[in-house]
Amino acid sequence: MSLSLPVVNLETAKFDCIFGRGCEGICCQNGRPSVEPEEAAQIEALLPRIKPLLRPDARKLLEKDGYLSNRKKLGFPMLRVIDQWCIFFNQGCVLHTIGMEDGKSYAYKPSQCALFPIQRNSKGQWYVRQWGYEGEQWDLFCLNPAASPVPASESLRAEMEYAAQFEANESTKSDENR
Ligand code: SF4
């Protein structure tokens, strides 16, 4: 099922992920997403597949202290970082790699990573993160609309579909809790 997603700045936003084409995955460097309990449960279940794919020091850290730090963002614990990279980064996101093996690339990543660079503003409206928009603080070059001519409406189709599904799931959960 394909769901549509209203994105307030979609007409003007530009975005082109150049991971592997000049970018080594800088958004996974100190990005520190937080992880909700359901996402953590999913990661726990995947640990036997995740561990062999990690950097050796990241695996040691995970086995010693776990993959969640004591710091919180949006009320949930954040992923650990080691040597300036997310614990799950090893020349790409290990959670993404395992998701691709299962035919669902975004399914195992924390939602903040799967949605990036789309997020909601204080009014609950979806928007594409861009320099100069909604007080964007992150200086990632890919958030500079002048860095690429590629319309976000083309490059972010998969992320928008994920966000639409994410929103539909939230709405189902809230109906179930009524
Ligand atoms: S979970 Fe994956 S996508 Fe998210 S910061 Fe870590 S390595 Fe990057």
Automatic annotation (TrEMBL):
Domain of life: Bacteria
InterPro entries: Rv0495c
Pfam families: DUF3109
Similarity annotation: Belongs to the Rv0495c family.
Protein name: DUF3109 family protein
